[in-house]
């Protein structure tokens, strides 16, 4: 029986997922990110060090455990950032910094099933981490990598919304609201509860006047795909050194993206991100036409990803929600694959006593990189063609003197030798496409 | 802190692991196996349906679970066969049979840490499953796939040891020992306790006479890389229809392998496999020179992998213990990789104000598939070359008029344009090799 929150794809969907993962991985590698895979479990104290998500952890115990204390308590990781931070601390003497890594793994969250959320899902993360300080230009690189990933896929255009915590915090402080965390949390509810309720909450819980609340909302309204957001923020009349720093950083992200990938990045000053370890740049990503499904790729800068004694490890990273992305696209039938198996050619078997000759043909084709199956039984050729057709396999090979190969889509059948016949490049692998 | 039994590789080792996984996957796909990934968890009843491994299961509970019964009990899968069988039953109406799938995933076993075994490890499985009956020729295909996988890797030669339960059971029955399961279990201890203790145990627990025990040991001694094992079994003077069937099947496996992959397969009549669902062919695999580490790839035929009502789903499959294989080879420093990052070129940064020009060079190289990083800081060129050297990155690019690119291994530096310079194919990706 299916278990709520634990999605499973049929093989054609898994083929699409692998195609997506291959594109993600090859793009990450083009940017020089090294692969990392961490264990699925962490000590529960490590997981609980991010208090906010403590309610969502799956703990492990052995079925025949003698007593509750016989094992250190282990839990499944709920993201890839906490294990990465732990890995960096544990192996900092063996790593070269700045350390660029990607990590593509399942994560688990013990959500209540009735919320209809995934409890097991796949994430693809990149992070750059350094000792002591990390130059800001790495913050400008993250959207470019993600832009390249999304452009390599047959899916709607991705728009990366960027903000900077320093802009918000500097603005609130400059405005005379010292509890910037509370203001940020409240403004973060804008899309859920609307501006009137946010304004009221700012007055009630953050000690804002009506004018201050209105200014916070004005800031959150600002959105621009170029550097014009800077003047619009300035026009609100608030000054603060942290605000200046934030505006300068955000401008760098927007301008770098405008040069390398026009249309990819928008400065969106209402973006806050729930998790509280971000300290500067924050990213969210929407697909055009799929905005209602929320962000499919998020991240940001953390001044202290990890620390060892007096050494701090700042980082910046971004995470593609692969299961979330595919769940949305599969739900809209927005991705298809040309066949349900990798097989390009089925070798027909004229009779069981000829099977070893058919195996030799298959071996010759495979040696030249052509995915090949031999028909499971020496049924009538009509049945064997049907075997291929039902799976979307384009070619059936008929052993004979000479051999022939048939494109079962067009019906065209030609003489061929397993030593040199090659299908058109487009037929070699299954093709993933939109709609 | 490392957790006993949960191995983690550093990035260079993970690059080797990915290289191995890519070879495994592409070989599986050349044979037409379709990809499948199942969820990490199963209901505990599903896991316990294979009684033998019940003690090794990790159960899950949510940290803030209200009561022990609020969730159906879930456990992490301990192999990929049980989830595959469940998936086939659940989706049998949506699958095309015979269904060939591969599955490469982590599995978990709650072993006691002091046993020094892996508690999390990676397996790569192929299985073919059909409705009602599955032709025997699929049993002859499994070793060929695995042989191709191992030949594509820079590792010692793999020898697949094959046996057939029908040979053993038919022989024991024909010999007059009706409790064939007990005989099999006892003979399976041969490598651990030696022939004398096995003979004694056969007399004690399986009701064998000394002569019968001796005959069982004689059978277990037979080993051959060709069909000669048939005559040697016949020479022991036992007859039984099941024995005939088993010998004929085993002969097919050995002869098919001898034709397609000489030296790959050995009929080894002492191989039994612990798990009790195998009903015919069984496989184990050793690496030459690494025999003492045991099998790195095992499997067999199961007449009833799954069933739905009156419909049986027989299958045959084999599983590569990827973590086990790599753990052994890493432990002997038997695999190396030419660099610790995917990066082929580092673009040097003459000064921070020239960074955007360096980014443009990197973009041009990446668009042509060349993994490229831009240096993290505009340090002295000596430092930037050191950055590349420490990671094994072969090329450093110097922006200028004209640009130049330096092979830092040879010191050779040539004029180059990012629009058309291409490294030698051998330098494009990290190279994995033996020793």
Automatic annotation (TrEMBL), chains A, B:
Going by the entry's taxonomy, the superkingdom of the source organism is recorded as: Bacteria
Q: Which residues bind L-histidine?
A: 79-81, 109, 123, 127, 273, 277-278
- Its Enzyme Commission number(s) read 6.1.1.21
Record's GO cellular component terms: cytoplasm
Gene Ontology biological process: histidyl-tRNA aminoacylation
The GO molecular function terms of this record are: ATP binding; histidine-tRNA ligase activity
| Pfam families cross-referenced by the UniProt entry | HGTP_anticodon, tRNA-synt_His
Which InterPro entries has this protein been placed in? Answer: aa-tRNA-synth_II, aa-tRNA-synth_II/BPL/LPL, Anticodon-bd, Anticodon-bd_dom_sf, His-tRNA-ligase, HisRS-like_core, HisRS/HisZ
Q: Does the keyword Aminoacyl-tRNA synthetase apply?
A: yes
User: Could you tell me the keywords of this UniProt record?
Assistant: Aminoacyl-tRNA synthetase, ATP-binding, Cytoplasm, Ligase, Nucleotide-binding, Protein biosynthesis
Ranges for region Disordered: 414-435
Looking at its record, which EC class is this enzyme?
ligase
CDD domains assigned = HisRS-like_core
- Which reaction does this chain catalyze? tRNA(His) + L-histidine + ATP = L-histidyl-tRNA(His) + AMP + diphosphate + H(+)
Q: Which family does it belong to?
A: Belongs to the class-II aminoacyl-tRNA synthetase family.
- PANTHER family named among the record's database cross-references: HISTIDINE--TRNA LIGASE, HISTIDYL-TRNA SYNTHETASE
- Subunit structure, as described in the record: Homodimer.
Q: What name does the UniProt record give this protein?
A: Histidine--tRNA ligase
């Amino acid at each position: 029986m299916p278990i709520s929150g634990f999605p499973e794809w049929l093989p054609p969907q898994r083929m699409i997922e692998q195609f997506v993962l291959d594109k993600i991985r090859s793009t990450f590698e083009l940017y020089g990110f090294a692969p990392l895979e961490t264990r699925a479990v962490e000590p529960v104290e490590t997981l609980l060090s991010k208090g906010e998500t403590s309610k969502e952890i799956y703990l492990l115990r052995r079925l025949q455990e003698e007593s509750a204390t016989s094992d250190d308590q282990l839990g499944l990781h709920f993201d890839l950032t906490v294990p990465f931070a732990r890995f960096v601390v544990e192996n900092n003497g063996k790593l070269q910094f700045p350390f660029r890594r990607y990590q593509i793994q399942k994560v688990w969250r013990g959500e209540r099933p009735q919320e209809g959320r995934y409890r097991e899902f796949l994430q693809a993360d990149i992070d750059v981490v350094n000792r002591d300080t990390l130059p800001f230009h790495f913050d400008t690189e993250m959207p470019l990598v993600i832009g390249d990933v999304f452009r390599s896929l047959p899916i709607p255009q991705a728009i990366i919304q960027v903000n900077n915590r320093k802009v918000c915090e500097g603005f609130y402080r400059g405005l005379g609201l010292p509890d910037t965390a509370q203001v940020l949390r409240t403004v973060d509810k804008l899309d859920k509860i609307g501006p009137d309720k946010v304004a009221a909450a700012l007055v009630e819980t953050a000690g804002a006047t009506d004018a201050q609340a209105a200014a916070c909302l004005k800031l959150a309204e600002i959105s621009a795909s170029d550097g014009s957001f800077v003047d619009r923020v300035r026009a609100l009349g608030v000054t603060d050194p942290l605000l200046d720093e934030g505006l300068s950083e955000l401008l760098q992200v927007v301008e770098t993206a405008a040069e390398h990938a026009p249309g990819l990045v928008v400065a969106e000053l209402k973006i806050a991100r729930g998790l509280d370890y971000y300290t500067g740049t924050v990213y969210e990503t929407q697909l055009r036409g799929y905005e209602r499904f929320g962000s499919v790729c998020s991240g940001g800068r953390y001044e202290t990803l990890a620390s060892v004694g007096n050494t701090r490890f700042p980082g910046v990273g971004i995470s593609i929600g692969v299961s979330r992305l595919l769940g949305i696209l599969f739900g809209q039938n927005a991705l298809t694959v040309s066949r349900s198996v990798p097989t390009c050619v089925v070798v027909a078997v004229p009779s069981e006593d000829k099977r070893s000759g058919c195996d030799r043909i298959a071996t010759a084709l495979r040696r030249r990189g052509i995915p090949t199956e031999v028909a499971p039984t020496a049924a009538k050729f009509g049945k064997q063609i049907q075997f291929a057709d039902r799976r979307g396999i384009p070619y059936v090979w008929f052993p004979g003197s000479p051999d022939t190969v048939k494109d079962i889509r067009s019906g065209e059948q030609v003489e061929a030798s397993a030593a040199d016949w090659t299908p058109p490049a487009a037929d070699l692998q299954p093709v993933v496409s939109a709609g």
